[in-house]
UniProtKB/TrEMBL annotation:
Top EC category: transferase
Origin superkingdom: Bacteria
Annotated protein name in UniProt: Octanoyl-[GcvH]:protein N-octanoyltransferase
Domain BPL/LPL catalytic: 40-224
Note, other: The reaction proceeds via a thioester-linked acyl-enzyme intermediate.
C-alpha cells in the first residue's frame, strides 16, 4: 500500500454493512457527506456497505429505449432498482457483495487516475497473502466495464467508480465476495436484453459474457464472506498502526446528509 494517497495515520470508519439497517440511497448520501467533510477537515475516511438485492443503474442505463421493461424484469426477479450519482453503468449488489469507499481530500498534485490507482493498490494490499495476481484492466464483456476492473485470470470480481464533491473524492469499489459471479452477470445481461431489445442506440451498452465474471470465493477456491473480508481489513489496518475511529455525524454533517439524500430521492422519482 505505497500510493501517496494511502499514507494516512488516522482513518474515519463508517460501517454501513448491516443489511438489516442499511439503505442503498443512504449509502450514496453518506459518501457525499464524507466528501464534504474531507473538504473541510482534510480527514480521509473509509465507508463499508452491504445491501439486499439491488441493481444500481448508471444514468446512461436510465436512457435505454425500453427502460421500463428492463426495470420490470429486475423487480420481478426480486431486485430493487435505483439510479446512482456516480459514473458507470449497471451493477448488481446483494448480501455477498461488499462495497468499499475511500474518501480523500482532493489534493492538487493528484489527478483522477491517481485516485483509481490508489484503490487498486489498496485492494491488492488487502489480499496480498493470496497466491494470485490481481490485474487491473478493462474486462469489456463484463457489466460496468472500465479501465480499472479488477480480475484474476481474466475473470472480473470488482469494479471501481469515482465521485467528486467539492474538494473531496469518493473512490467506490464493489467487491464480489460470495456466491456466483456468473449468475449475477446473467441478470444484468438479461436486463440489457429487455431494456434495449436490439434497437440501435447512441450509447454503446456492454455485450456481457457471464463467464467473464466470478466471485472472489470462486476465484480463490475457498469459502469467503463479506464479514471475513471486513475483519481482515480492520486487522491489517491495525497491524499498520493506522488508527481507525468511529464518529457520529455532527450537526453540520447531518444537514449535508439530509440534503444529499433528498437529491438522491429526487433523482430516483422517475423510476419509482
Amino acid at each position: 500500500m505505497n500510493h501517496a494517497l494511502l499514507q494516512f495515520d488516522q482513518l474515519r470508519l463508517v460501517d454501513d454493512s448491516d443489511i438489516n439497517q442499511s439503505d442503498i440511497m443512504t449509502s450514496f448520501a453518506i459518501d457525499d457527506t464524507l466528501c464534504l467533510t474531507a473538504t473541510e477537515t482534510k480527514q480521509p475516511a473509509i465507508h463499508l456497505w452491504v445491501h439486499r438485492p439491488t441493481v444500481v443503474l448508471g444514468i446512461p442505463d436510465s436512457r435505454t429505449p425500453h427502460i421500463n421493461d428492463g426495470i420490470q424484469f429486475l423487480n420481478d426477479a426480486g431486485y430493487k432498482v435505483i439510479i446512482r450519482n456516480s459514473g458507470g453503468l449497471a451493477v448488481l449488489l446483494d448480501e455477498g457483495v461488499l462495497n468499499l469507499s475511500l474518501i480523500f481530500p482532493e489534493e492538487k498534485q493528484f489527478d483522477i487516475h491517481d485516485s483509481y490507482q490508489a484503490m487498486v493498490e489498496f485492494i491488492r494490499w488487502l489480499f496480498e497473502d493470496e497466491p494470485y495476481t490481481i490485474d487491473a484492466y478493462e474486462i469489456s464483456e463484463s457489466y460496468c466495464p472500465g479501465t480499472y476492473d479488477l480480475s484474476i485470470n481474466g475473470q472480473k470480481f470488482a469494479g471501481i467508480s469515482q465521485r467528486r464533491v467539492k474538494q473531496g473524492t469518493a473512490v467506490q469499489i464493489y467487491l464480489c465476495i460470495e456466491g456466483d459471479g456468473q449468475q449475477r452477470a446473467d441478470v444484468i445481461k438479461q436486463f440489457y436484453e429487455k431494456a434495449v431489445q436490439g434497437e440501435e442506440t447512441k450509447f454503446n451498452y456492454p455485450s456481457i459474457k457471464p463467464e467473464m465474471m466470478a466471485s472472489l470465493e470462486q476465484l480463490l477456491g475457498k469459502s469467503l464472506s463479506t464479514k471475513e473480508v471486513i475483519d481482515q481489513l480492520l486487522t491489517k489496518l491495525k497491524q499498520r498502526n493506522i488508527e481507525v475511529f468511529n464518529q457520529t455525524f455532527t450537526e453540520t454533517e447531518q444537514q449535508w446528509f439530509d440534503n444529499r439524500l433528498n437529491l438522491m430521492n429526487k433523482r430516483n422519482r422517475t423510476i419509482s
